[in-house]
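Hello,

Following up on my earlier ticket. Below are the four sequence lines again, exactly as submitted.
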Amino acid sequence: MALQARPARPLRADAVRNRDRLLAAAKQVFGERGLDAPLEEIARRAEVSIGTLYNHFPTREAFFDAILPERLAALERIAAAAMADPDPWRGFTGFLEGLFALQAEDQGLNDAMARRLPLSEGVLASCHQGFELAGQVVERAKESGTLRADFEMRDLPLLVWAMSQVIRESMGVAPQAWRRCLSFFLDGLRAETARPLSVPAMADEQLDAIRLRTTPGS
Amino acid sequence: MALQARPARPLRADAVRNRDRLLAAAKQVFGERGLDAPLEEIARRAEVSIGTLYNHFPTREAFFDAILPERLAALERIAAAAMADPDPWRGFTGFLEGLFALQAEDQGLNDAMARRLPLSEGVLASCHQGFELAGQVVERAKESGTLRADFEMRDLPLLVWAMSQVIRESMGVAPQAWRRCLSFFLDGLRAETARPLSVPAMADEQLDAIRLRTTPGS
DNA sequence: TTAGAAGTTGAGGGAAGCCTCAATTTCTTG
DNA sequence: CAAGAAATTGAGGCTTCCCTCAACTTCTAA
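Thanks for your patience. The regenerated structure is below:
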């Protein structure tokens, strides 16, 4: 802690102002158009030149570092709320609903959670931490006998990928459609209804390989 | 029928050869990299100049028209096979498995079915026809009491979007992972396990709006 | 065999993004 | 109120991909 690079001199007043405007614009633009939105659009919306943008945030990832961890912290809150629910199944479903609602309200967050772009160490750590508690939510629901026993933490990325696309396609026109899709999914995750699975969960190395892949998509 | 634009003169021999090479290359490239792959890559792989490519296929969509309908015809075969299965539920699940297996083996087809790009009338018609029979598969499964009664044809796009992303992300590293995801889904589509849904299916107009949207993604 | 139609070629112009840097402006501090 | 440090600016170079077209090559058929 206190590892912050200490600024020998504080930022000049106009620089602080521009930095704030850039951050605000970036939140908006990434939220609307996703993490691959053109940086020039951010500069334009901040009413600042592209040079100034690069002065404050030398890479796209610098924006991510400044924006995403704060957003991802919501995950922890959602997971904590889920643990606070006395009903383990309701906790589990509430967690997923909260998670996807988050993705639904911010296209950039959706990209981040579906790992559509390479993310920095810092952002990955935030993400990881957000899902730390989620492990407990899943475990508790399994132990209570409501969540199917063969569901594993490593299946969560499948859900996130799946829902991220549903959200992305339907948000503009049918903002609730993803909830219907999630309902189908959840009905398939109940222990009572579970049929044996023919395919094992992904191995951690497989997940890592996908995450580290620099080329998104294929 | 016999509406084919009749070529006043047949194509010259070298032109036929180049056209074939281009089509073969396009199938490969779209299959590997998706429908938005650079056309120059296709020309390169066909060992033909970019000018020749544009001579034979003046737009990207011209490639789609030449490639996709044939591929989409497989949908009909899959649906027909599903109807041939005496067990309506097995027919239904078999149809979905076949559909997604198709998406899994061709990134371009995946893009087309998830409507990641605007498609021409002709391709849309093929797509539509492919899903014509699918309606019967769904109806039969519902009538038999195995598929939940509140599942509707218009929910199918949700599944396709969801699975398309799972397939896209996991194919390279865990080529079977999508089957696991589908199993969860299918267990949620059985009538016995169905809980009431809180959200109605999308309206046709909503689906159309999404399909006609020119800007893919957001 | 050869004229002319058919087809091919690839340099190059255009658009969208990325990013840099020399010149200029603005702020701060003595 | 300077002087100099800090910050801003935007034209422009770079890349990737799109698409065109005038010059060239190849094929066909008389």
